Structure of NDP-hexose 2,3-dehydratase:
Amino acid sequence: MTRHVTSAVLDSPRPRDNAELPGRLARSAATTEGAHLSLADFPGWLAGRDRAHRFEVRRIPFAELDAWSFDPVTGDLGHRTGRFFTVRGLRARAAGAAVGAWQQPVIDQPEVGILGILAKEFDGVLHFLMQAKMEPGNPNLLQLSPTVQATRSNYTRVHQGAPVRFLDHFQRPERVVADTLQSEHGSWFYRKANRNLIVETSGEVEPHDDFCWLTLGQIHALLRRDNLVNMDSRTVLSCLPLPDLAPGALHSDTELLSWITGERARHEVAAELIPLGEVAGWVREEARIRHAHERFFDVVAVSVRAGSREVTSWTQPLFEPRGLGVTAFLTRRIGGVRHYLAQARVEGGFLDTVELGPTVQCVPGNVAHLPPEHRPRFLDTVLRAGPERIRYAAVHAEEGGRFLNAESRYLVVEATAEEAPTAAPEGFRWVTAGQLTSLVRHAHYINVQARTLLACLYAMDTGEEPSC
């Protein structure tokens, strides 16, 4: 009899969506004073975590790397265990691109990591468990990270360090809010993806000094500050199924998907890994690997001490970009609905040729030598925008575990119809925040820079809803 009842319950159809979740998320987004920590007290809490641990990062020559070395045959820079990641070479060709063929160092990290945020309701409002986490590449070292931010090598303890705290909530989730594979930086990683997870628990969660519960409204307020919410938090937050308040869009969802499929079909991209020692146009020195024309990025080595990490000291390679990036959405109201101009981005490390990116995504210094027709479209529109047209602006660091001082100025810029017409040029489409939110529920549609901006759309301090 018990087996029959259990089978009947399992066979009963259930709603395909959690109808209550969007309202609960909206309530959390509207709550700027949490049950555990106020916004006014947050800076003191973060400063206290900084004082509580010893953090130190110093540059070293490659010869001082411990457990890392250059392969004598291929020149690849890897860890003695074969785990974590390896710096290899990439050879890429992209028909129709401003630069049709190139070679570069790239990070090969085939394992899928976990980026997870734990949610729990307090006083009727969803709160999210965030961590003050040190990463060696962060400009200010300590930033707000997800509850769990770990590669497979880390959470399987290849480094023989302490267990990853709260990992069990994501390996055996009680209630899934969002769960999707998302790409990493396609310009620096080769086909890298992480599992982006948000799970809710009703049980007790053991407190820890390096973790704090914040409402979505508090996190949105912190996203308006420079270098505070780290990249991994931003990409996970972008996956939240926030309610769509827009009455429609310039292009239907079917039309948008058809356009993306067409962009993937028309771009011919060939990318393959090659030995690092064979990469043309790059020079290996004692303490860095650099481009022959001093552009793009360097590969460097660092020694790290971090009292709050599972392993308290280590050495590793990092990629260090040259210059501050500019990452921006142009925005307009079209038919009364707020839209954002997305670009079909081709990057050598993407798994599926094209992902939607921001209108502009580049380091201006890296393209200054190009003729005007080969400079990124709309870059000048973004750069000359006055403060009255900037709806969102903050400097955010990229992934601090692999990139050193990699920062970009993230912007949402109001455009005129003359600057950015409704009939978008080839390779661009107007989309709503709701359409981006729908696409990000699936893998390999929205790149990591656009996911940061999607998370930031809800943090815009303009008094205007982002139509979602």
